[in-house]
Amino acid sequence: MGVTAARFDREAAYGTQGKAPSRAVLAADRSESGLDLHLLNLDEIAAAYGQGAALAAVDHVKCFLNFELRDLDAFDSADYVLRQLSEVPVAYDGQRFHLFVSLAPTGGTKYCAHKVTPTVHGNPAFPDDAWCRRYRADMALAVTLFEAMAEDRLLLAFQPVRHAEEDGRVLYHECLLRMQGAEADLFAVGPHIEALERLGLIRALDRFVFEAVLEQLRADPLAHLAVNISAKSLVQDEWWSDHLRALADQPGLARRLYVEITETSALASVSDAVSFCQTLRGLGCRIVLDDFGIGHAAIRSILALSPEVVKIDKFFLRNATTSKNGWRALAHLVGMVDALGSITVVEGVEDARSSALLLGMGVQWQQGWHLGRPSMSRFGSFVPLAVANPGRSSATAQRVPQELLDHAH
Asked: Do 200 and 190 form a contact (C-beta atoms < 8 A)?
């Protein structure tokens, strides 16, 4: 039976007063194996749009399960359920909003997504007008992004992580998300991604981008690419089942894939994150800790996740070029990463002076406009710039494990 022939009990889900709880469960017959579908943002929807909107959300899910998936197996249709219910908005009273959903084996919540109260929105148990306005503004950004996804207007740009002393040598290209506008113009989606993280919807975008990067790897057997995923997505559950199977079936893809963990928000669970990274590494992927030194990306993350590569945030390079204390701080971070056995990459290298400063610290792998701007092609224009090493020879520079360098091209 499973989730595709779900039994829905309105009173069990909403209570006798018809008010939305923090989680509604649409459950299969407990005597048979299947999946429970959890709706994790009903409280927020009710607070921001009204109780009628929350009821409309549940009715939307009920109709989807009972009519679109009538004869399908629960586990075989899990990916489709997650995509459709996350990426397709619910319309109610002129408003549109998306659902924060998760699937877990019937009778348990071990693999259910962690519900993290958005730090910007605060506790919706006591919403005020300002809270509702912020929530609706974030949801409007989410609707815009998912609409672009449905219309194939989300594209990948590529920026190299390049060796600063050896022209043309690239460790990998980072895949950056761009949205195509009405006039075919392209723009970054940073505010949209931040909104998805606050809303709990980031996992739907992460799995979409992950699949797009896998397609790029399939199309070009020489490519080595990095995909960004949020710290909130580091949970091994039904959201990732198809992708993990694909990597297991095609180990050649995994060996060319770098997974960049962006810690603009905190890890939902350190133990789950460690387990997920171990799974990826076991399949052949390499783990990259992004934006190290700011936000939630800290020494704890290196010790817990054991990334092969650590990218130091551009903030420290900017400071290093303007003050002695800034230089010392950056040198300290570089030494720390080196001591822990990871490869150091520094972001935000925009000119020859910054690149030379890093080479003086032994940082050969660098990323920034000076070494390659984001391009819609991995073979976009790049003019190599010779940079003298101001005092540290290549022989004393940071040692890079041979297995990482074998493919650097």
From this structure: no
Q: Is pLDDT above 60 for 260?
A: yes
Distances (CA, A) of 385 to 48, 165, 348, 362: 53, 9, 16, 18
Alpha-carbon torsion angle 301, 307, 309, 312, nearest 10: 0
Give me the residues paired with residue 103 across strands.
37
Read off the tokens for 135. 């929530």
Query: Is-contact 23 54, C-beta < 8 A?
Result: no
Q: Which residues pair with 24 in a beta bridge?
A: 39
DSSP 90-109: EEETTEEE---EEEEETT--
Residue in the block written with tokens 């989807």: 64
What integer pLDDT is reported at residue 30 of this predicted model? 35
Q: Which domains are present in the chain?
A: 2-129 (3.30.70), 152-405 (3.20.20.450)
Within 8 A by CB and 6+ apart from 175, the residues are 156, 157, 158, 209, 212, 213, 216, 225, 226, 227, 228
What CA–CA distance (Å, rounded) separates 206 from 227? Answer: 9
3-state helix, strand, coil in the chain (%, to 5): 45, 20, 40
Alpha-carbon Rg for the chain in angstroms: 23
Separation of alpha carbons 300 and 244, rounded Å: 26
The tokens describing 247, both together, are 């990597």
In the three-class reduction of DSSP (H, G, I as helix; E, B as strand; rest coil), residue 25 is classed as strand
* pTM attached to this predicted model: 0.83
- Measured between alpha carbons, how far apart are the two ends of the chain, in Å? 51
Residue 19, phi-psi category: left (phi > 0), alpha (psi -120 to 50), beta (remainder)? beta
Residue 166: partners with Cβ closer than 8 Å, 6 or more residues away? none
Structure tokens that stand for 297 in this block:
């990306």
Cβ-based neighbour number of residue 97 at 10 Å? 24
Q: What number of other Cβ atoms are within 10 A of residue 7's Cβ?
A: 13
User: Model confidence over 132-161: pLDDT tens digits?
Assistant: 999 999 999 999 999 999 999 999 999 999
